[in-house]
Amino acid sequence: YTLRIIGGAFATNVELSFWLLAFSMFIFLSLAIIKRYTELLSLKQQQRGSKARGRGYEVDDIPLLAALGGASGYLSVLVLALYLNSDRVQMLYEHSSRLWALCPVFLFWISRMWMTAHRGKMDDDPIVFALKDHGSQLVVLIMAAIFLLTGLLVAAARAQTPTIPLDEVRVGMVGVGRTVFSGTQLEDFKVHGFVSFLDGSAG
Q1: Is 56 exposed, middle or buried (0-12, 13-18, 19+ CB in 10 A)?
Q2: Are 70 and 30 in contact (CB under 8 A)?
Q3: How confident is the model at residue 29 (pLDDT cuts 50, 70, 90)?
Q4: CA–CA distance from 165 to each of 59, 169, 174 (Å)?
Q5: Which residues, including other chains, have CB under 8 Å from residue 113's CB and lie 6 or more apart?
Q6: Residue 193 CA from chain centroid, whole number
C-alpha cells in the first residue's frame, strides 16, 4: 500500500509528504504483520504444521510478530501526533488542538485490531475485516466527526474575524501578514503598500 501511495504521487506529479510516507509505512506494516500473525495462529490452533506455506515465518515467531506489529501500529499513532503538532497543521487549522482527539481514537482502533487478532477472531485480511467490523466503522465515523467539528470551528472563527472595508483604508496604515520564509517556522511580516494602492499605482 505504501508503494501504491508513492507510485500514485509520481504518476500525478504530486509532492509526497514526509508525514504521509512515515504514517503509511508504520500503519501498513502493522496491518501486514497482523495478517502473518493470523496465519501462524491458525496453523498453531489447527496443528497444520510449524511453517506458513510459501512464507519464511514459523509458529515460534508468533510472540515476536505480535511485538513488532503492535510497536509499528503505535508508532503510526506517534507520527500522527507529531504531525498534528507541526507548524503545517497550525497554519491550516486555528483550532488544531481539537484534532488531538484523533490520537486516542486511532490508538483504540490499533489496539482493538491486535486484541482481535490475538483472540483468533481476525480474518486473514485485516483490511477486509475492518471494512466489515462495526467497531472500525464507528471509529471512522468518530474521526470524521472530529474533522467536521474542527472545520466548523475554523469557519466560525474566520467569520468572526474583523475586517476593514476598502473605503476605510487610509494612507499610512500598515498591514501584518504571516507566512513561512524558510523551513516550517511561521513568521510575521509588515505590508507598506497602502499609499501606492490608494493613489492607483502598483504597491
Answers
A1: exposed
A2: yes
A3: very high
A4: 72, 7, 15
A5: 31, 34, 73, 122, 126, 129, 130, 136
A6: 40
Look-up of cell digits 503545517: 88
- 28 near 1, Cβ under 8 Å? yes
Neighbours of 40 (CB within 10 A): 21
Residue entry with cell 473605503: 167
Query: Are 74 and 107 spatial neighbours (Cβ–Cβ below 8 Å)?
Result: yes
The DSSP code sequence of 98-136 is GGGGHHHHHHHHHHHHHHHHHTT---S-HHHHHHH-HHH
Q: Residue 78 carries which side chain, given as an amino acid letter? A: L
Contact 93, 99 (CB under 8 A): yes
pLDDT (tens digit per residue) in 100-118: 899 999 999 999 999 999 9
Is the Cα dihedral 147, 152, 155, 156 positive or negative?
negative
